[in-house]
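Usage example:
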Amino acid sequence: MTTLDQIRPGGRARITRLAASGALGQRLSEMGLVEGTAVRVVRAAPLGDPLEIEVQDYFLSLRRAEARFVEVSETGSHGAP
Amino acid sequence: MARPDAAVAAAAKLLRVAVLGNPNAGKSTLFNALTGLSQRVGNYPGVTVEKKVGAMASSAGRLDLVDLPGTYSLAAHSPDEMVAVDLLLGQAPGEPRPDALLAVVDASNLERNLYLVTQLLETGLPVVVALNMMDVAEGRGVHVDAAALSERLGAPVVPTRADRRIGIDALRAAIAAAAAGGLPPRPAHRFAPPPPIAAGLALLREKLAPGWAHARGRPVHEVELLRALVDEGGHAEARLIAALPAAREELARARAAARAEAPLSALEAQGRYRYLRQLTAGCVRRDPPPRQTWTDRLDHVLTHKVWGALVFAAAMVLLFQSIFTWARPLMEAIDAGFGRAGGWIGAWMPEGALRSLLIDGVIGGVGAIVIFLPQILLLFLFLGILEDCGYMARAAFLMDRLMARVGLSGKSFIPMLSGFACAVPAVMATRVIENRRDRLATILVTPLMTCSARLPVYAVLIAAFVPPTRLLGGFLSLPAVTLLALYLLGIATAVAMAFLFKRTLLRGPTPPFVLELPTYKWPAPRVLAARLLDRTKAFLTRAGTVILAMSLIVWALAYFPRAPGPAAAAIHDGRPAAAAAPSGIVAEGDPALLDAARDAAQLEQSLLGRVGRAVEPAFRPLGWDWRITVAALAAFPAREIVVSTLGTIFSLGGDVDEGSADLQAALQRATWPDGRALFTLPVALSVMVFFALCCQCGATIATIRRETNSWKWAWFTFGYMTVLAYGAGLLTYRVGAALAA
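Running the assembly step on the lines above writes:
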């Protein structure tokens, strides 16, 4: 099983399941991280955390610890340089 | 729910429209465009959410717009987030239910923005959608058909560009129509919750709703049931259980019945996004996306390991430069203005209590605070530009890793940094932090950052008592190192206290750091100007009320009771001249010195002086005598007052500043009654350390009270900082004295 934090910058993936519940699950789902959605990992912050991803039509920052709850299947790794 | 009596109601009462929308959708800009400058700011009872109401003129007459905090959904995990839900459902105490809703939607990011709208459609209130930022959408090749969208949603949709005031008149008309008798939206089809949620809802509706309604004496809205079911650990659930303890089991049963393969919140979101895709099908057309947008390209630099850090550092240097240097001329002008006003009153009024009240109490006290207005405005201008152009979110992104180590998030960084200028705007800047615990922790530690008002205190004492020894081959001087150490002391203490608070008092689950990085855009000058005006008003109001009151109290304590006779007091009660003019200045001949000696004598026998003597034993362990104690007490309204009070006490008259060589000399000459020097290096250091950590600032206390909506947190901040300051001052003096011995 792959989770979003394992996708390298530039990689693309599709969300298969959101495992978070509570406030985090709520926030991630309402921000559009729902099953079937395509995401692209844009970059990691200079200190390695958090990550920046592109989802729906916008950019979102989330910590690796939070991205771990987003289960994905990788769909490609050719994106932005 | 149709309202046949709407026309009657419209004539009878002021119509209210609540404004909602995602953060970064341009809600504030639109609110300003609709209401102009006619805004009133207050607080909702019991929460830290700011309540902003503005009047909007329309063909149907005046109506009130209520600006609600930016939110992505109606799910609430804290009382603060619940404010919106309560208001929409007419459950907020003392707040009438709005007559209609205005939903501000970012057209360039339509689906996520409409997510909230799908929830608003269920409240039963008329909804008007402002399709904002159409230009950004077009620029990205996203074309939204507003007419088609309006038809699908069954609610009016008005395209707008808030920053250029395009579409405002049409929007005003639509709002007025909706508020004066509009119908709830009738979408092409309604959102049907996924089966597991629908089953749970049915169970709750049957088993809990009647009991809940009975327990609180108000009917239960379907929206509340949905939130109580879906938002596990959320605020609707907590409220239901508080009203009806048996609900805990019933909720667990309903959730078990849902027996979902994913958390209910994920199911709800998934269902709503699917619903939205169907509902808006055909309303949005996309060009093949351009390879890279401006935001992409800018972010490539601004969040880069090297360039990003450089730009960030440059932005912060510019911030400090503007606060310390550019504000200087304006501050001097204000200072001169107050000085002239004082001089003018002094020249025209007969000597007496009233003159002293005006000059020393009102002008001296309020002037000492108003002088910070230029710094505050510059800081807010700067922060406003950073916020509105979208850089603030990037700064939080860059700094989050560091801040996470003390249990905070990147969002706390900018407010804490602003604390170097002044804690007042810094505490106000914590509004960007949605999580209540994080926001409180940031508010509690921000006053520990070395603000500009501490500089005068440091400047006097360092110049007088720290020898200008050169270090590292002349590259550094001991005074500079001392100053740096005091700054570092503030930072280290703030970090340590944040760590401590987040593990004790404000303990709780780590809030998610799920932060939108909005598209870069040019800030709208009008919005910036409106915000600056808002801050200025708030600040001056405070200076005119709370701070004025505190200044007057300190003035009265220092003025009363009067010495029996002018100048003679100290001589007649038979004390040695050294007590009358404690710095040992011989007050013969020179009338200015005579005046000064008289001021000192007055202060000594005033209530403040007596209090100072009474509490002197408490401060003796820090190496302080009653005069230092009095100066510290008198500085309660504002730290820097300690400088002018020291000036008064050491017989120079009140009008000295930190550059005053006379004051430095007087401090160096000051002695204990037995002739030992009063200020040794350990004593001077203990005073500085005390002022580094104490919360002697009425403006900060008043701001914390306003921002947290509670005196409890304001006095808590004052209390813990005073204890810290005392402890650290004591330690400094003891260690210093031991080393010196």
